[in-house]
Amino acid sequence: MGFNHAKHRIESAKCYPYDGLCDEAGDLLPVRLATDPDYLAARAIINDIQDRRSLKWEWSNVEHDVREEIVDTFAAIIRAARSEPDKEPHHD
Q: Does residue 30 register a pLDDT over 80?
């Protein structure tokens, strides 16, 4: 699984964001911070995890406020990782 798989996950996350809400008609409401690439990456990672056999249904049972926390946390981790300089880890 490589670049094409990653692009597919990104597109899928745009259509079906993990932290998205639907209105009464079932239409997706605008997603928080939809233009932030860190949020898009977080949603794409979750989209990939949701497609894993034993994990799929567990992720679907998470309440919406917790889903938002998960996406926020993943986006913050991605943002922090991008800001870290490339260097060897320090082991004590």
A: no
Q: Are 13 and 47 in contact (CB under 8 A)?
A: yes
Q: Which pTM value belongs to this model?
A: 0.80
Q: Which one-letter amino acid corresponds to residue 53?
A: R
Domain segments of the chain as ranges: 3-83
Round to whole Å and give the CA distance between 89 and 43.
27
